[in-house]
Structure formats: structure tokens, C-alpha cells
UniProtKB/TrEMBL annotation:
UniProt xrefs under InterPro entries: PC_trans
Primary enzyme class: transferase
Matches recorded under Pfam families: CTP_transf_1
Localization (cell): Cell membrane
Superkingdom, natural source: Bacteria
Name this polypeptide is given: Phosphatidate cytidylyltransferase
Pathway: Phospholipid metabolism; CDP-diacylglycerol biosynthesis; CDP-diacylglycerol from sn-glycerol 3-phosphate: step 3/3; Lipid metabolism
One example GO MF annotation: nucleotidyltransferase activity
Keywords: Cell membrane, Lipid biosynthesis, Lipid metabolism, Membrane, Nucleotidyltransferase, Phospholipid biosynthesis, Phospholipid metabolism, Transferase, Transmembrane, Transmembrane helix
Length: 262
């Protein structure tokens, strides 16, 4: 527990100031976290980052992460979707050149990994550019959901939520997480008035809390599939980058879409 607390304090001391500064320092931090997350996922599959498919995937990740605020610096008109398709073609060509050292399944895994991590963290950058209050709202939703799910589940949990994927999670914890997130969101709205109505805050908080828990379960599912306990060991007591950001990788894109649409 001491190790876990110490890691959390050190990570927060690095992470939170850069979130508050925003701009290029925050973008560099997000790129660094994304590369670590990519390494963690590729390693689960047995793929090396410093290999031909690993390097192609890494370059694809970097392009998918490219912030919209720097769009005017790019002098050629190529969309991220077109780059994605080019990466798929290169990876498929490598399956032939390598005589199936990497198979079609490996290519699909590498591409999906780049999309999942790349776009997930890309919207983290975009949300920060929209305003600091949105970032803290997203983080608060995830933390309050995790805390509510843990403590309510531990105190009252009896019915398993999804034992095949995460045997410790309960239905009571699921609802406890949503309830805690709603309490946090209403207090946050009261203190900051960052959204236009309490009803909107209430509705999107329920959605984001559910989405965040699905993100957590999604990472649990592929860790169970690849027979690993944690995605990495860079954060002692917490695991890897994906272990800490699995919920945010789902929450942040959904929050961005909701803010743009409504």
C-alpha cells in the first residue's frame, strides 16, 4: 500500500502540472504515455516495438496523435484515414516479405492497437485544448467511479458483474461507481458552472461512468486473454500506463463527441 501511495503521489506531481500547463508540454507527455501504452499492448501479443511492424505501428500512432492545433504546419493534404490505410498495406506486404513471421492476425492486432491508443489519447489532447475544466471533469468521473465501485462493491457487493472477465467486480459496485460519479459531477458543476445545465451534467455523467467501466472491463478482457496480470510495471503498485488510463481512453473520446454535438 505504501508503494502504491508513493507512486500515485509522484505520478500526480508530474502529471497534474503538465495538464495545467497544457500546450506542447502536455502534448509531449501524452505522446510519451501513448508510446508506453503501445509497447505494453504489443508485448502482450509477443510483438516487438523495435521491429518492422512495431516501427510502422509506432509511426502510425504518432500520426494519429497529431493535434488539430498544429494542422496548419502540415503542407500536404493527407488525412489520418489515408495514412491508416497505407499502414495496413505496408503491414500486409510485410506478412509476405517475412513469410508470415507476422500473420494477418498480428497485422489486425497492431492496427487496432494504434487506433485504440492513438485516437484515445488524441482526444485527451483535444479535450485539454477545449479547456482545463473538461480534463478535470473526465479525470474526476473516472476516479470517482473507480472509488465508488471499489468501496460500495467491497461493502455490499454480492452479485458478480462479469466473472469471466473480472471476477472481483460486482453489480452493486457498478451502480456504486455511477452514484459516486454523479455526486462528484454535481458538486463539480456547482463549483465551476462549466456546462450549461445540471440535467446535461447528470445525463452525460451516467453515460461516461458506464463507458469508463466498460473501458476498464475491455482492458481486463485482453489481459485475461493474453494471461497477464498487469499491462506493465512502470508504475509500481499500479501496473502499467494502460492499467491507469484504460477508462480514460473510453471516457475522453465520448466526452469530446458529446461536447461537440451538444
Amino acid at each position: 500500500m505504501k508503494q502504491r501511495i508513493l507512486t500515485a503521489v509522484i505520478a500526480a506531481a508530474v502529471f497534474l502540472p503538465l495538464v495545467m500547463i497544457g500546450g506542447l508540454p502536455f502534448t509531449i507527455l501524452v505522446y510519451a504515455m501513448s508510446i508506453l501504452a503501445l509497447f505494453e499492448l504489443l508485448r502482450m501479443k509477443g510483438l516487438q516495438l523495435l521491429s518492422v511492424p512495431g516501427i510502422i505501428t509506432l509511426i502510425l500512432l504518432g500520426i494519429l496523435l497529431y493535434p488539430s492545433r498544429y494542422r496548419e504546419l502540415v503542407t500536404f493534404e493527407v488525412s489520418k484515414g489515408e495514412v491508416l490505410f497505407l499502414a495496413v498495406l505496408l503491414l500486409l506486404a510485410y506478412t509476405v516479405l517475412s513469410k508470415n513471421i507476422i500473420s494477418f492476425d498480428g497485422v489486425a492486432f497492431a492496427v487496432l492497437t494504434a487506433i485504440y491508443i492513438g485516437f484515445g489519447f488524441y482526444y485527451f489532447i483535444e479535450i485539454r485544448d477545449m479547456g482545463l475544466s473538461y480534463v478535470f471533469f473526465a479525470i474526476g468521473i473516472v476516479w470517482s467511479t473507480d472509488s465508488g465501485a471499489y468501496f460500495i462493491g467491497k461493502a455490499f457487493g454480492k452479485r458478480k458483474l462479469w466473472p469471466e472477465i473480472s471476477p472481483n467486480k460486482t453489480i452493486e459496485g457498478f451502480w456504486g461507481g455511477i452514484s459516486m460519479a454523479v455526486i462528484f459531477a454535481l458538486i463539480y458543476q456547482m463549483a465551476t458552472d462549466f456546462l450549461h445545465s445540471y440535467l446535461f451534467v447528470f445525463m452525460i455523467t451516467i453515460l461516461l461512468s458506464i463507458v469508463g467501466q466498460i473501458g476498464d472491463l475491455a482492458e481486463s478482457a485482453f489481459k485475461r486473454h493474453y494471461h497477464v496480470k498487469d499491462s506493465g510495471r512502470i508504475l509500481p503498485g499500479h501496473g502499467g500506463v494502460l492499467d491507469r488510463f484504460d477508462s480514460l481512453l473510453f471516457v475522453v473520446p465520448f466526452l469530446y463527441f458529446l461536447l461537440v454535438l451538444f
